[in-house]
Amino acid sequence: MICLVVLLSCIGLICAEEPFNHNVHNERVIGGSDARPNTWRWQVSLQYDSYSDGYYYHICGGSIISSSYIMTAAHCILSMDPNKYRVVVGEYNLYEYDGSEQFIRVDTVIVHPDWNDDLAKGNDIALLKLANPMYDNGFVEIATFPYPEQTLPHGFTCYITGWGLMDHIGSAPDKLQVAPINVVEHSVCSQHEWWGSIALKTMVCAGGDGVISGCQGDSGGPLNCLTDGTWTVHGVVSYGPAGMCNQVSKPTVFTRVSSFVEWIFSTMEQNL
Fold first, then answer.
1. Fewer CB within 10 Å, N side or C side of the chain?
2. Which of 32, 34, 14 has its CA nearest to residue 24?
3. Which of 135, 181, 191, 176 is nearest to 157 (CA)?
């Protein structure tokens, strides 16, 4: 899900009347295309069992940050009960079992202590400790972090990945989507005609061209940027405009990972 902001309203929970092949429903990146299999190996599908009946629904993306931890958005956390969630790593096609997937239960849900359900205040980040560590089957990879407080220049091209909506009608793909998306520096994104004061320096804006954007179902997923020759996760999908996600001058807004590196590592160390 993505929190779509006009009056800061969250409409993220994806519903489905019946389960699909391996008990999951999905939705996609706007303006994207099918990713090549086994490329964005730190991308995960966060899934939720809303009725405790064993059927899971894709609600958000996430990133592998260790063999036992997933990073996602705080607003993706619909319950603090870890038994409600599972994480799927090595996922590509949500409708099919490809043999690359690992389905892992969640042991602990850790939301940033300063998150208060207000997207305008930031801190939209959470960690999930897995009940069992994933294993390297050739389809998973630990994400690389930016250095603390690292920022990217205006116009820098990154890539958004996820299974979010592809249009405001609700069309959905089966395969992981990817799209190039350009960074909008804070001095621009914080202008009145853009996101104004709710675009904080602890956030990264990208897009706003009216063509490519994240959308419902992409929240918590990574902003992937090739910096210094290494693919690095610079952002966690947080919010975008209500209605049509791909609006001009309303880019997708990500939690800036470089602002939370210290918290991420200290939290993992404290919860070994």
1. C
2. 14
3. 181
Helix (H) or strand (E) holding 269: helix 261-270
DSSP H helices in 76-158: none
DSSP-derived 3-state class of residue 262:
helix
Specify whether 79 is catalytic.
no
Task: Measure CA of the first residue to CA of the last residue in the chain; give whole Å.
Answer: 29
pLDDT score of 168 more than 80: no
Structural domain spans, the chain? 157-258
124 is a catalytic site residue: yes
CA dihedral sign of residues 86, 223, 256, 191 = negative
Task: Report the pLDDT value the prediction gives residue 6, as an integer from 0 to 100.
Answer: 36
Please state which of the four CATH numbers 2.40.10.10, 3.40.50.2000, 3.20.20.450, 1.10.530.10 is assigned to the domain occupying 157-258: 2.40.10.10
Q: How confident is the model at residue 272 (pLDDT cuts 50, 70, 90)?
A: confident
What does each C-alpha distance from 137 to 47, 94, 101, 125 come to in angstroms? 21, 18, 9, 27
Catalytic residue among 100, 219, 238, 259: 219
**Residues 14, 25 contacting (CB under 8 angstroms):** yes
Query: Lowest-pLDDT range, 13-17, 102-106, 254-258?
Result: 13-17
* Catalytic-role residue among 68, 124, 190, 218: 124
- In angstroms, the CA 202 to CA 66 distance is 23
Out of 25, 75, 112, 234, the active site residue is 75
Q: What is the DSSP letter of 42?
A: T
Q: Is 167 a catalytic residue?
A: no
